[in-house]
Amino acid sequence: MDNDLIYKIALTRIPRVGSVIAKNLISYCGGVKEVFLKSKHYLKKIPGVGETLATNINSYKNFVDINLEIDFINQNQIDVHFFLDESYPYRLRQVPDCPIIIYSKGSSNLNPDKCIAIVGTRKMTSYGKHFTKELMEELNVYQPTIVSGLAYGVDVFAHKQSIKNEMPTFGVVAHGLDQIYPSVHKDVARDMIKKQGAIITEYTSNTIPNRENFPMRNRLVAGMVDAVIVVESAIKGGSLITAELANQYNRDVLALPGAINQKYSSGCNYLIKKNKAHVIEGVEDLVHLLNWDIKVEKKIQKPLFQNFTDNEKKLFSIIQENKEVGIDHLQIKSGFVSSLLAITLLELEMKNCIISLPGKRYKSI
Questions:
Q1: Is 283 found in the same domain as 352?
Q2: What is the DSSP string of 277-337?
Q3: Residues spanned by the domain of 46
């Protein structure tokens, strides 16, 4: 266990010491433990500290609670990521007000190659569901990690679709890891962890999901990713806060346009109108924007014999037995007349089971 962990956690517990001041303190004092060893006179000279904060730091003695928190971390297999650690999300580290510590349960790799957020309203419509479902199916070949907030609506739907399409997903929460809010999403959180995902927070245990914690949570969602996709949002939706933060952090923002009279498209339309988001109509828009210029072949469903006619089964078996086969050989082996052979070959091509080659030759896929 990290010998300085007790001081790292303690620094986040001191009243009025935010992440920016905490980093200043560590820098000027030469380490996190040293912050607690410096005199009040020294501390108050550090930019942004002053008399009150210096007193708060110098008088902090509640290390018993910190030891209890470390016991909780050990007992529940929670990973702790300090902002100077390699394990800390490098994208988030670029954000000026990133927390000095985040806690995660599940995958210890918080630095995936591709990472995007999908956010939106808690009152998702069928339009949003249809778009998200199709987007997630098409994203599978790129294998990004999907980040969201484990809330009702778009968030939890994105997490569920990630699991369904075998993509890791991170849920960023506004409370400690001793609970899941809302509690009805406990099973989803468990499945996320099982499928190489994680639940992530900046809060210690026994922190309840107070209203003010959610905007703070949103900055982690925006900071951890390459791009934020807003699926649906009202004009004052919480996901617009995430989009605004993403713009401040120089992250790409994409929004799904909708009808002008639809409440839960008004936020997306506003972002697009104000040039705060790119239009997204499908996966190609995201791939182009993020320069995911990898060559991936779409997964082709293997032919199922139960979907074949008897003639198709016979002909496909002959083609499958050979690397390539000519039409004359197929006619001899199958015994089909020319017209039946041509029709059957066409049906197999339409089912993406075979491809035709120059010289009237065929091979299976």
A1: no
A2: SEE-SSHHHHHHHTT-----PPPPPPP-GGGS-HHHHHHHHHHHHSSSEEHHHHHHHH---
A3: 1-75
